[in-house]
Write a structure and sequence with these properties.
Layout (H helix, E strand, L loop, with lengths): L8 H14 L5 H11 L5 H13 L4 H44 L3 H29 L3 H16 L4 H20 L1
Helix pairs in contact: 1-2, 1-4, 3-4, 6-7
Length: 180
């Protein structure tokens, strides 16, 4: 754990507000930068662990990270501050953009602009995935499970829940065997 003082509830709110303002359509890259590089509240490995747990929980991953991190530092008020900071500005913007889109949905250049924003968000998510993988320095068997998951979902079109049910026990078993 980094050697910085635990953030106040206000600092948690403002940091997640900054994350929510910074990223439209995918805030994970901004959250990682803010929490790990700028504030140094957690390490890269801790961020990866938080995200791994967040993916197992229902709801958006970054909201789950805000809840877990806020709870770690300031309990329920820290969790509320993190979530409120994260969603406040994007919610207002989303409602405003939705109203505008309803009025101008047939404008061709606007359709292209939204497609470009989507592509940029996908690239950001991919870059964060690569950065997390680098931070973990995964073993060959972890990479093999990742490739098998990708192949099953993207190529063979196997539903995600089936891939999770099939590969999770295998991954747990391999990790257990390696730890012994």
């Amino acid at each position: 754990m980094p050697t910085v003082a635990p953030p106040t509830t206000r600092e948690i709110f403002l940091s997640f507000l900054s994350v929510g303002i910074s990223g439209f359509g995918g805030v994970l890259p901004y959250a990682r930068r803010q929490l790990v590089d700028v504030k140094r509240w957690i390490t890269d490995a801790e961020m990866t662990e938080l995200l791994s747990i967040a993916q197992l929980l229902p709801g958006p991953n970054i909201v789950n990270v805000a809840i877990m991190l806020g709870t770690r530092f300031r309990g329920a008020t820290g969790a509320a501050a993190g979530v409120l900071g994260l969603i406040l500005v994007p919610l207002v913007l989303f409602l405003a953009l939705g109203a505008l889109y309803r009025e101008f949905a047939d404008v061709p250049w606007l359709k292209g602009a939204f497609a470009g924003v989507g592509a940029a968000a996908a690239g950001l998510v991919l870059s964060v995935g690569i950065r997390f993988a680098h931070a973990l320095k995964p073993h060959a068997w972890v990479v093999a499970l990742g490739v098998a998951s990708f192949t099953a979902i993207a190529v063979a079109r196997v539903p995600l829940p089936l891939v999770v049910v099939a590969l999770t026990p295998l991954g747990v078993w391999i990790a257990w065997r390696r730890e012994r």
